[in-house]
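Section handout, structural biology tutorial.
Before the tutorial, make sure you can parse a SMILES string by hand: atoms, branches in parentheses, ring closures as digits. In the record below the ligand is adenosine-5'-triphosphate, and the chain has 272 residues. In the tutorial you will relate the predicted structure tokens back to the input. Do not try to memorize them.
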Amino acid sequence: MQPILTAENITVRFDTQEGAITAVDDMSVAVRPGEFLSVIGPSGCGKSTLFNVIGGLLGQYQGKVSVAGETVSGPHSSIGMVFQEESTFPWRTVLDNVAFPLELIGLNKRARVDKARHFISMVGLDGFENRYPGELSGGMRQRVSLARTLASEPKILLMDEPFAALDEQTRLLLGDKVLQIQQQLKQTTLLITHNITEAVQMSDRILVMTYRPGRAKRIVDIDLPRPRTSEIVGSEAFGRYVAQIWADLREEASRGMRDEEQHARDEKAAPG
Ligand SMILES: Nc1ncnc2c1ncn2[C@@H]1O[C@H](COP(=O)(O)OP(=O)(O)OP(=O)(O)O)[C@@H](O)[C@H]1O
Ligand SMILES: [Mg+2]
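Predicted structure of the complex:
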């Protein structure tokens, strides 16, 4: 099957105080229609950089991003993004948050309210339409962000650690919600994460990244039955995947940690 999203030979360099660094080095990813692919890697390996390139938020890079065979650059309506940070509008109700992208494309009020309600219900927030984000829990606010992104019906859902700020139980249950929705919409999804459980729970394939420069280290096929729920976390097969990915990741994360420690020592030796 032809991939719907491809990022080919992406290289990103940044100028920092310590000189130029290569954050992402010649990475390629291809996501098939309807697939759930996760990119996993240790902190600082270049995941968000890759996310920003694919989502069109970063202009300075080498390589090519295509959706359905067409090269894209800059923010693009076919790619819907969900961020790690809070991104709801605190001054708008849940309904008006979710309806916001529909307002931008000029949908009439009736149609946008109907559609917003549909996606609010899909993320399980029926009855909360008139609340403000400040009256909701963090997990509920992330669901509002998800509903808002889904409401614009993107070809590809691109998420960067959307549940990182949440506790483990909420994260697992929200994972179930995302799985349900993905199944229902056949939504092509690219998830960026450093959480192994989350990646195995949800993915068809997991791409493991190396630590600095960020490269593709390995792709693991997750051959677990669907539909899945978080119950699968307790199964033996699940545990084997977690162990396999941790073995790969451990090497990279350790390298990252050594690197950071060295950096701290250098700073101490030569402050400023
Ligand atoms: N705008 C920037 N300017 C300079 N360096 C940057 C910039 N953005 C990222 N970097 C550096 O590039 C590397 C990769 O950063 P990135 O944020 O992509 O990592 P990450 O994998 O998303 O990390 P985390 O898991 O902590 O979110 C890091 O060393 C970071 O300091
Ligand atoms: Mg990041």
